[in-house]
Amino acid sequence: MDTERFERDSLAAGRAQSRSIEQRAISEQFHLMYTSPLFAGLSHAECDEVLSYSRLKRFARNEMIFLQGEPFNKLVMVHSGMVKVTQTSLSGQEVILRVIRSRDTVGLHADSQIFTHACSACAMESSKAFVWEYRDFRTIESRMPRITANIHDILSGRLVELEKMFSEIATGTAAQRLGLTLLRLLERVGEPSGDGIAINLRREELSQMTGLTVFTISRALAKWARSGLVVPRREAILVRDLVRFRTEVNYEGTGQAAVALHASGHLM
């Protein structure tokens, strides 16, 4: 009897310890998300409550999270890894709208009457994300109106960014368009290393973001490489000196503007 009791007590203790470890792991995963723009103005307890309605899901590299045109039934916050948000044109051409990492969200809509996804989301590397069922998230949102305000702020910021990108495409040189895109990527998904900051994107993906050909991108990267600013790699780009690179990109823009003004007779 004593042996049986000891075994039962040991088994119970093991289960309790396992639950404790699992709870600590969940708490640590939640803690990483507190600084997400979606949770701005919420207490840690409120963040935990929102996250408790989600499930943490793994996505393999190149696995689709959702597809353009699919029923809008979930909201996703990246926990780790990297995700691209894309849109496909009527001709079948894929355009990358943005690339995101931890604490950013995909699948946000301000209008509850939208029933299908306007874009697709795909894991660019092995990733984990918190996933909410849309009906559950709407229930939470009705109790925490601050989340609705945060969603509007996030979407407004994305609209401003898209407006800037459109202006760059319409008026910038090829090198400036590529440089400004790289600067945004460095800030959002850059990975610091001893040699600089790396962006894990292929030239084809940069082409889908900028509307430039792979040849044009390779030529601009080669020019910056000769100046010691970047190191082009097969599936990444290393920026050695961010300050110098930003100065070079800004000079590309101001230099082009000066040439245009001179040609039109407005610069003496």
Structural description of this entry:
This protein is an alpha+beta fold and 268 residues long. The chain has 2 domains: 1-165, Jelly Rolls; 172-253, Winged helix-like DNA-binding domain superfamily/Winged helix DNA-binding domain (Arc Repressor Mutant, subunit A). It contains 8 helices and 12 strands. It has helices spanning 2-32, 44-52, 134-143, 145-171, 174-189, 203-210, 214-226, 242-263; strands at residues 55-59, 64-66, 74-80, 83-88, 94-100, 105-106, 120-123, 127-133, 191-193, 196-199, 230-232, 237-239. The strands form 3 sheets. Strands 1-8-3-6 form a 4-stranded antiparallel sheet. A 4-stranded antiparallel sheet has the order 2-7-4-5. A hairpin with a 5-residue loop joins strand 4 (83-88) and strand 5 (94-100). Helix 5 runs antiparallel to helix 8. The longest helix is centred in the N-terminal third of the chain and has 31 residues, at 2-32. It is globular. The N and C termini lie far apart (102 Å). Mean pLDDT is 83; it is low at 15-23 and 255-268.
- Arithmetic mean pLDDT: 83
Which strand order do you get reading across the main beta sheet? 1-8-3-6
Count of helical stretches: 8
The major beta sheet can be summarized as:
4 strands, antiparallel
State the CATH architecture of the largest domain: Sandwich
Number of strands: 12
What's the overall geometry?
Answer: globular
How many domains? 2
N-end to C-end Cα span: 102 Å
Q: SS-based structural class?
A: alpha+beta
Helical percent range? 40-55%
Strand composition percent: 15-25%
Task: List the uncertain runs.
Answer: 15-23, 255-268
Radius of gyration: 23 Å
Q: Indicate the CATH topology of the largest domain.
A: Jelly Rolls
CATH first level of the largest domain: Mainly Beta
